[in-house]
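User: quick one
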Amino acid sequence: MNGNALGYLLHTKIRNQLAGFFKKPVRLIYIVVFVGLLVVTMIGGKEGATASDRVIRDISELTAGLNALFILIFSTTLFGGLSKGSSFFRMSDVNFLFPSPLNKRSILFYALIQQIWSSMLIGIFILFQYTMLHVSYNLSVLGLFLIFFVYSLTVFLGQTLAMFLYTYVSDSDKKKNAAKTALYIIIAGLLLYIGLNVLQNRTEIIKCLAEVGNSLPVVLFPFAGWMGGFAGSLLKGEYLHSAFWLALSAAGFVAMLIAMSRSKREYYEDVISSAETMQNAVNSMKDGITPEASPRVIKVGKEGIDKGEGASVFFYKHLLENRRASKVLVKPMSLLFMVMTIFFAVFLKGEGILPIFIFSVYMQIFSVAVGRFNRELTKPFIYLVPEPPFKKMLYALAETMPTELIESALVIIPVSVILGTPAYVCILCIIARLTFSFLFIASSLLIERIWGGSLSKLAGIFIYLLADILLALPGIALAISLSIGGISLFSSDLTVFISLALMNIPVASLVIYLCRNVLQYAET
Amino acid sequence: MLKVEHVTKKYGKLLANDDISFFVDEGQIAVLVGPNGAGKSTVIKCIAGLLRFDGNIAIGGFDNKSVDAKRLIGYVPEMPAVYDLLTISEHMEFIRRAYRLPDDGYDKYLLERFELWDKKDKPGKELSKGMQQKLSICCTLLHRPRVIVFDEPLIGLDPHAIKELKNTFTELKQQGCALLISTHMLDSVEDFWDVAHIMMNGRFAATKHNTTEENGEKSLEELFFEITEGKTAEVSE
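Assistant: Done. Structure below.
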């Protein structure tokens, strides 16, 4: 009976989700577009592989990178779970299943099956890395899907371990801190080990990182290292090794499950608060409010906006919000993107600054989308304040300038140091990146002007990406034209940066001006 | 003070408001009642200047999208939208500066009245839904608007705040403000409403005045259920 009820629930959810594609054909279109983009990526990868000057890199670099990625995502999931509680359960499960007479173990298994699907969604970005991975490491499509599945499994294992541990430590802050400290010590030990090895082999940093990243201390990292060992061994054709790491991970997972299902400790209470948090986030998204990525406990510090009258108060309020949102100078998401870009620069050292610049601009699309201005549009105040709409818009955008300048400098300066780029190229690169911030904001405004808030979340993202590409086209076209015409402004990199900056500024300014009355309505 | 003329609002194919016209005078409290999805919040958002619509809305004689109208209107949304990273007192400071208001202590008065003064240093993120709603009301009242639209203002409030808000309604009415309140809870407005519009399917199904002549007829509640449960309604206008 238990199995029937939960089986019915799972089966009905899946059936309704599939039926939703036909009831709302726009969802089907997204899937087609998604698959189309994936196919384009795959074809691009194959094309790139035929290039005559192609150099296939050592697969150990890739497996070391995978170990680092798995450990990073696993630790982040685990830390999050230990701090706030981790839950596979939705609020509907909490309300309907927990008070029901259904078997506790069956409910746990139902949640685990449900969670595997969610974990897979998190790893979808990996599928779009095919071109780079195929060209650089000759990775096959099968290999790419292997990485995707192992990444998803690692996220899933991190969530399971977090939930398992949380039931044991949630009753005391001391226990929570002890668990976190243990994890900190393991990670610090690993970093120290890697750092010392790199210091001893400073002449060949990448080779050294590849060796250390595949070494036993790294691969022994619970679950994440084991899964990395499994994927890495399989990619290298070491099937016996991969079977060992898979068996170790499976044994660890089964042990956790047995301990959880036999435990007398009640996990229901522990998951309720995280299920509520998740539900609140979902509700906020439905109301068009993106949850603020702020610290769990906000340190208020010095109180007061102190400056500004009329529209200008939005600028000073944004500065205050930025100060409280993050302990460092930049948004948490931007910080992650910066680390990724710098990491990327280390591996693509020989390719020049242009690929790194393109990568950092690609990341910027997403960080600008969650910026202060776009967040302000989700609240009614900016529409209600009795000031001219264009003035309000300019002041609400003003914060973007210092924030994006700092972010661009923090990304490009380290990249330039790694690549040995001259200072003037570095400065122009920062300026060019800054112009893209305005271009992406202009793109958001354009969408707001045309559709208001009437687009669905997914359609909004899709059209935002499309508008970004369209608005960037004049700059790209100028750069290509100059290149074809053999016109070089000092160097090929500089020609690109100057072309982009020259075109992005007028395009963004024109769009912003045309959308000057966008703050008259908050169409929702 | 508030004049709504032939307002029609469509979301794609869905007709949320269909040719709605009404007005609210100075010192009058109008209520919008109706089942879920009747179009109450939509017309409120149109009045607040948050939605595009066909028709005309005037506030104190000014077009509702004009800066002059925005000085006169106050809007309390159904979902309180406060800033996670600003404290309660900073929200008040923000409104004071944005509306160029003098620092005359009215913010403190409002926060004390809604029992938020002792929590003034708490950031928005740490407030419960009820506290966020109270803060939203205080922010709206701070610039002393002449036309105030409330969208389900009593939901999530504790008994003290409900009492204070009801008293505030009466005081604002005495001060000559025009109030429009959307609500599901008929009993919550029975003490002070002047005119009630019952909405169904984006239109006014009936309008009832709280006068001695009309009170001899059906009560607001009787009329509401008669209309919403599908029986024949007597429309007074």
